[in-house]
Structures
1.
Amino acid sequence: MKTKISTIAEALKNWVPYRLEESSNEPLCRWIYLGDAPITEPFFSDTIAKCRQLSPNSKLHRSVGNTAILEEWAEQMEVIPPAAFIFHVSRCGSTLVSQLLGINAENIVLSEVPFFDELLRFGFRQQRDVLSLLKAAVGLYSARRNEKQKRVFIKTDSWHIHFYHSLRQLYPHTPFIFLYRNPAEVLLSQQKNRGMHAVPGVVEPAIFNLDAEHIIQLSLDGYLAKVLEGYFQKIIDILQTDRKTIAVNYNQGAIAVMEEITSFAGVVLMKEEIAAMQQRSEFHGKYPGQAFSETSLQEPSPLLLEEAVRLYTEAEKIRIANF
């Protein structure tokens, strides 16, 4: 048995399933070779784009397999359990947080992995239980690739907050962290460059508890306002019932946010690490080579955000009381 485990683990080293291919029967998954380099890109989609240049990922070789094998293979890998899941409302510093966590070579940081999202949304659309597949996928991504690696942090897509119960079922004891920001500031950022969840219909509206007839009547900003209302209501509900969660606010500042996140995850930051984080936080989370600058909010929140701002204020009261 030891020989089999060794063989499977060695064969799969630096390989992960990265794309779900739906079929009439069981879905298939396409695999990609990551190479030996650490994962440092702001998003895992950036990592995939970079790794396409590696020879094992040549267009001449297409590695495709059945998802049914994921569970068996994941059981034979040396998997590091997640240290924390980081949920967020978008444009609230979550990308910078993942970049700062990645400064420490002991951390594997998985930032918005497309394959996790595809599995969750496939299960949602098809009304199928994909939790065992998701846990296997997380395990394969969390396999130890070198001796330095000790911890795994997973930053979700923003709408994965609506899959909270499924993720908590899989990881009942893992710290869950909710990062947010004033909704008016989120809206201002989204108006410049809208994410998937900020455009009606890109992500299934039902995930946000919205129906097609309703969203037709909404402007782009009005749609995002409803999405944000759902996010903050979910955060409030979770904070009131789950003691293994905390909320952090972007406006606390990058280092304060990092100290709170790492402390809750049971990680001690060294002085040198904090200094490196301070230096990195002066640059854009998504564009590490670009100095960070941001236009402050000069105008009052638009009326369409009234309910989102009310819920944000309520979440803030809970966060401060818990802190």
2.
Amino acid sequence: MKLRTRPVCLCLLVLAMVGSHSKCGIAQEGSRLLGEICRVKGQETNTLQGWGLVTGLRGTGDSDSAATSMALSRMIQLMGGPIGLERNGQLDVKSLGDTKNVAMVFVTAQVPRFGAQQGDVVDVTVTAISAKSLEGGVLMLTPLLGPRADNPTVYAMAQGELRLSLDGPATKATIESGAKMEATVKTGFQANGKVTFVINDDVASFETAQLVQSEINAYIEAMPSVGNALAEQRLQTQPDGTSSYSRRQEFFGKFARAVDQKHVEVLIPPGFEKNPVGFISQLESQVPISVRSQSQRVVINEREGIVVIGEAVEIAPSLISHRNLRILAGGGPTVVAVDQRANPTLQSLADALNALEVPTDDLIAIIKTLQKKGDLFGEVVFE
């Protein structure tokens, strides 16, 4: 396998040899709490959006835009400003003259996954439509609606001075705490007496879902309060005076059921109907899940030039040529030491290439070629 030669550049190689709680590497085999690998369905962020006007620009606004002039005229009219009408009854936009200091913009705000109450403030993002720059601009009072165009509810009002990022485009700006919630947005977490846990993508699998189901069922069945409540709930007296037990409402006699490799439904057991928050809190903080090690995974971020290699990723014996150097992985003489095992690790190959100052782009090309050839024994994830 021959590599294309490129100028030597900074080679950034991050080896995944960190613990299970690290944010930078891949989790090692071990026990993690349910709340660390799952979230509750319904607890998602919501986007508010709207159209607005930015004023105070330095001649970098919309030029010769009829839509911007019309929107500005309408806003001036609503505020009681001196804007005239033409003979046909339309707003006299020509009376505004040059409007290069004004720009029409798209405004968005993210409502946190736990919702927001009336009066809360959230950050705002403003993007230009045709303006050259938003530097120095101020967003006029802008109503923000929900993601559905058929719902005219105003959830928030945005306003404030724009702040541009030092290394970002001049056509995008933010307003910290720039939108005030006018309506309460609640994110539901239960439906029909049950909650659904969504497993994180990095550990989602049928095996993990089955394990989550089993651990939750074992934990709930061991709770004394649940057992007592079930006994009281199930024993019923019939009109003829006889006593019998009603049918239980669990999934095949259980409380949790894995729907697929990402979702596990859990019935709220007796005794917790009025305290679902406490029930979810107990599960998230007290149910341990033994997640399979993800050390057989390679994560590649080509844009940033980062490669994260799990320590258990192996490759087939390979001869790799780079410029005038050769590396034989898997036995035999080598220029730089590589595993002598039948199947060397990708980590050892990366160490050898790094010692030869091989650019990260070439390392990524090698990994892609090994994967395509079927000589890389592990999962490759591109971000």
3.
Amino acid sequence: MKIGDIEFPKNPVFLAPMEDVTDIGFRLLCKRFGADMVYTEFISSDALIRDIKKTKRKIIFSEEERPIGIQIYGSDPDTMVEAAKICEDANPDLIDINFGCPVRKIAGKGAGSGMMRTPEVMLEITERVVKAVNKPVSVKTRLGWDDDSKIIVPLAEQLQDCGIVALTIHGRTRSQMYKGKADWSLIRKVKNNPRMRIPIIGNGDVNSVEECKQRFDETGVDAVMIGRGSIGRPWFFRELKHYLQTGEHLPEESFEWYLDILKQQVMGSVERLDEFRGILHTRRHLAATPLFKGIPDFRETRIAMLRADTLDELLAILDEIPYKFGLAAYA
């Protein structure tokens, strides 16, 4: 499978762009564990062209992450074109346009999945960005605004006609946010449309290796994008790749092995940002990781872990967990 000039192995799995999640440290870990493509956090085109430091930092990536896409969002065509040119100067492998984010502060202003209510503007932005840059351009979007306006099947053809090289579809409407179950039937319909020539990437509710394989088998998508299922679990890509290639589950590692990965993530984030922001950025991963789920009487430790504001304090809490809860391989 190819996206532009980028070649991928059979059944590739991608890391979804997620705000306050897919920073460079997390992307590098996911890449190390087998993610075939990673994306930056989504980036405001308005903030980017205004040269906001925090936003400019988001387009920084390392060569080890390739292939990587920079994702931008916005509602004004001129601003999106200017932002895309700035992203092109950073030299990613592709530029991705976010027409899928459902949060109110973005969709409510007409950007992200808010574009589902103004598809004509969506198409104008896409066409103009494609023409303005030499990098391949892809799009990520949803099924529609709500259950009464699931427009993705005809919209996919129109986006393809704008010149994009790939289309990612999240199997929910904007109104659903992240509630209910992702509907992959329309993703399958887009993929099986004989008029579609570009790769179709499916996204939504892939939280196990079995679900990932099922999505490939039932829909025929060219790639599966993993979002929330990877938070606090960068090793998930290693498990996915093994299962997709062999049909067997990868043997589990020790508790300390997984914990060490999370510690590496914390320390890497602190090193690249600073102590305060690095810890803050990894709290969501520590709160969501399945590693701590089901541990009896873990509540107080969880609270202390998420309140720790120095690296030494946080690492001390993490180091104590295997022994405090009898999870150490060699007690």
4.
Amino acid sequence: MVKIDNIELPDFPLLLAPMEDVSDPPFRALCKENGADVVYTEFISSEGLIRDAAKSVIKLDIYEKERPVGIQIFGANIDSMLRSVEIVEKTKPDIIDINFGCPVKKVVSKGAGAGILKDIDLMVKLTEAMVKHTSLPITVKTRLGWDDNSIRIVEVAERLQDVGCKAISIHGRTRAQMYKGNANWKPIAEVKNNPRMHIPVFGNGDVNSPEKAMEMRDSYGLDGCMIGRAAIGYPWFFNEIKHYFKTGKYLPKPSIAERVQVARRHLQMSIDWKGERLGVVETRRHYTNYFKGIPHFKEHRMKLVTSDDSVDVFAALNEIESKFGDSIIPEIL
């Protein structure tokens, strides 16, 4: 069993990563149904929250069926982060996570996200202030360092733990790498193997198969893994990993009809939550993975990703279902 503060999780829990414009309530619900043990919101700007910006506030929506659920916030100003904690607390999440890893320029340029990796003292000070400001468990998601010459993640993780951080998720790349190259899990294992560490250490980056998850567990000894891109448009991934852990065999892939049914639910939930226009537009990024590998699919994909009218998108999904039925996508058998 793994514990984040008093939150009990199964051995080697699977966490849905906080992803901008991806980890919204509809998608989190689907991942939860399909085996995710902990889910996180999209990252939320502390400055946006304290200014009551609509785009930030709507991301605070969480639901009972998601628990345990973490709300992730980012920022570099301690006062703003503490004020945002007070706002977040009112929505009663199970966890507050701090984003110290986002590599995007508009975040980094303000010293937030991975930008704070240039100022480890501030990173620790900010974490400590937030821990003292709330009774909710504070966790951190970060990267190995700013670049290959500044990887101090063993020391950083220990310092964060010492000021009260209850778990740490580490993406196996530096900020300089962005999302290129391969994730390096060895420094994450060094954090876990530090005899002074006692909080859970979760790995993140390049877990795109059940075998990779098993490698992270068995070869690197980590406490769990956080899954990001591999889950986009494919919420079944969590259960596939769990089935592989239990049996050593692959869970049968969902048929095209099953994929359509889930994509249809996903779209409807998004419309119910965000309204027609945003619901349609923001579900588009998932369709490539929902139907990845179907031969001669371009015409159908264009209908899914270019229409602004949900009636047309639902019609396109119905067309896919009637055309391909219960067949399995051959490329991913």
